[in-house]
Amino acid sequence: MKTAILNQLAEAVVEGDEDLAEELAQKALDEGVDPYEAIVDGLAKGMVIVSDKYEKGEAFVPHLLIASGAMYAGMDILTPHMNVESSGKRAIGVIGTIEGDVHDIGKNLVKTMMSASGFDMIDLGHDVPVEKFVEVAKEKKADLVSMSALMTTTMTNMEKVIEMLQEEGTRDSLIVMIGGAPVSPEFAEQIGADSTHPDSMVATEWAKEAVSKLAPAEERWSEEKISLGKVKYREILSKKKVKGKTDIGLETAKQIIADFESVAVKTKEEMTHIDRTLAAMADKKVDRLPVYPLACGSLRKFADVNYREYATDINAFVESAYLGSKYLDTDMFVGLIDLSATSADFGCKIKYPEDDTPSSEGHLEAYEQIEVPEVKEGTRAYELIMASKAATEKLNKELNTPFVGFHEGPLLTLTQLMGADRVLMDMKTHPDVVLEAVQKCTDYICQVSELFFAENACNALCIDNLWSNNVIMSEEDYWKFDGKFVYEQHIPIFKKYDQPYIIHNCADAVHFDTQIKKFGTQLYSYAYYPKLRSKGSQNYADLIPKYGDVCCMMGEINPVQFMDNTSEGIQKVKDDTKDLLEGVLPVLKENGLQSKYVMSTGCETPPGGTLTTVKAMVDVVKELGPDLQKQIFG
Fold first, then answer.
1. CA 536 to CA 203: how far, in whole Å?
2. Which of 117, 211, 298, 460 has the most neighbouring CB atoms within 10 Å?
3. Which of these CATH numbers, 3.30.70.2860, 3.60.130.10, 3.40.50.620, 1.10.1240.10, describes 1-82?
4. What are the start and end residues of each CATH 1.10.1240.10 domain in the chain?
5. DSSP SS3 for 284
């Protein structure tokens, strides 16, 4: 009887049946099955089965989320009846997505797997203030803190949490684990985290082993240990604070301006920025490949404005785009402000930090609340379009630099509006409701793009179609819940105005066939994560042979590296840029192409970062590009 119940509990989780999981959990109690055994050999076993299918590409994120719902439903019945002596004390983990970042899918998967493995996980949610991690960890005498981020612009907040733990004297009282697609082992080591891992199962196994080696909580969290911790980190923190008083973005901007103005004669290039960019997209002859690190918000430092002003004040935005493009001499500027402009107009509450990217602060409670707004004065999208128009006029007239407008696609808008994990689960449980909501978002997205073109508010328009990802959802589901809407309703607007369709997608394993070949995309901005290559992340050597005949690719330098203003950090950016340039050009030639690539970063450089690294990338392309172009193409 016990074996049958345990197998049934596992199957309920695999099927994602919450009601059945609750019923079987109660049956296990009634039949005298040990609650801990029912969780470990029943519910958790089912979660492992689903996770294994996920790792093999046989299941996707919605399946994991639904299965986790069934697991938690059963655990809610069983946990209150657990015998602590027989099950052992559960390790306590505090988990959340870092402040400024609303992406919580990866965080939820890690939480689920760790809960299934015996951790008592305290989920702080997304956009978690740095202080909250420290407060809750101390209150609960936690064994582990786990932080995640998808946006490179928010990753620096992870270091702030670690610094606060050091300041409080509690850093050595627990393990710190970080994660997210852009997070690398090098970044983890740099900020003082204990570890990072590419997937939830590996992270869970590592965390179990690491926590098992900790001293008892009473010893680690004693006043004596905390006092010693404060002393231990005092000198380290004092050095950081002195360094941290300097606004590195502003200081490096001033230095770049001074250097620029001191040079009486500027180097004259053969082509203008606009001509070079257009030629590359058309695979025509160029003097060198175009270059534009996705340094959007960080360029506000040239205008000495904070991020709130950059995001909400037209004059501040235009001046940031103009001065940044002028002093760095980039081949374009992308008007990326944040990923919440369209969701804000649907009624999603947005917070505007002084010096960080705006983000959704809350979601709508019900899909029924979604009503399609009109793009008009006072809406966030209208303000974005007018700011883009002013910037386009100034950059085109004074610098011959193209301006690329930017806004979110339909499914990304919906996930910002309702929450990604909820939408992804509802795709399986309430698909018609989600499809109706995506249609409403599409209606608005089409309005926004139409007005961009009607107002001549950009030279080209880039759309963030994030959710094309072969780990998050199948290609069939992506087509059903986003691709079909884009292809049938959104792309025709670009064709109407004879505009190239451009995509930015910093996901790690994209459905490239759909987003490039099916859509007919002409410029694709992508990220490359070497640690996720086995999952489907691809670089220029993979992409140019497959899509170079259709599309100009744009990527892929790691944007996190641009935070490091040391001589070693700057040299690293230079070396990686040189390697990319020397790697791309021969691959272009091998595939019968000569210029169809834009040197860039895989995602936006952090807005609080240094600008010397951005300049380093641009300078390397300008210095080496012309000679390499001639050597390889004549």
1. 20
2. 298
3. 1.10.1240.10
4. 1-82
5. coil
Instruction: For residue 350, give the H/E element and its range.
Output: strand 350-351
pLDDT score for 355: 78
Q: pLDDT tens digits, residue range 224-241? A: 888 888 777 776 776 565
- What's the half-sphere exposure (Cβ side, CA atoms, 13 Å) at 221? 14
Q: 449-483 b/e with 16+ CB inside 10 Å = b? A: bbbbbeeebbbbbbbbbbbbbbbbbebebbbbbbb
CA-based angle 519:520:522, to the nearest 5? 125
DSSP 528-587: --GGGGGGT---HHHHHHHHTTT-EEEEEE-GGGGG--SHHHHHHHHHHHHHHHHHHHHH
Residues 469, 510 contacting (CB under 8 angstroms): yes
DSSP codes joined into one string, 32-88: T--HHHHIIIIIHHHHHHHHHHHHTTSS-HHHHHHHHHHHHHHHHHHGGG--HHHH-
CATH superfamily of 83-240: Cobalamin-binding domain (3.40.50.280)
According to the model, what pLDDT value does residue 88 have?
57
- Any idea what the Cα angle at residue 528 is, between residues 462 and 163, rounded to 5°? 100
The span from the CA of 185 to the CA of 618, in Å, is: 26
What tokens does 341 get? 């402009």
Nearest to 56 by CA among 624, 536, 431, 593: 536
37 pLDDT exceeds 50? Answer: yes
Answer positive or negative: Cα dihedral of 597, 603, 604, 609.
Answer: negative
**Could you tell me the pTM of the whole model?**
0.84
Q: Give the separation between CA 556 and CA 543, rounded to whole angstroms.
A: 11
| Lookup result for tokens 């193409």 | 633
Contacting residues for 43 by C-beta, under 8 A, at least 6 apart: 9, 10, 13, 21, 25, 70, 71, 74, 75, 78, 116
Please say whether the structural domain 266-526 has been given the CATH code 3.30.450.90: no
Match 């996920």 to its residue by tokens: 54
Helices 314-328 + 612-633 axis angle, to 10: 50
- C-beta separation of 432 from 475 below 8 A: no
Closest CA to 475 of 513, 443, 437: 513
By the 10 Å C-beta count (0-12 exposed, 13-18 middle, 19+ buried), 521 is classed as buried
Q: Compute the distance between CA of residue 244 and CA of residue 251 in angstroms, rounded to an integer.
A: 12
Sheet bearing 175-179, strands edge to edge: 120-123, 92-97, 144-148, 175-179, 195-196
Q: Where in the chain is the domain with CATH 3.20.20.210?
A: 266-526
Compute the distance between CA of residue 542 and CA of residue 538 in angstroms, rounded to an integer: 6
Give me the residue label for tokens 């990923």: 339
What are the residue ranges of CATH 3.40.50.280 in the chain?
A: 83-240
pLDDT tens digit string along 265-283? 466 889 999 999 999 999 9
Angle of CA points 555, 388, 406, to nearest 5°: 35
Instruction: Tell me if 280 sits within 8 A of 598, measured CB to CB.
Output: yes
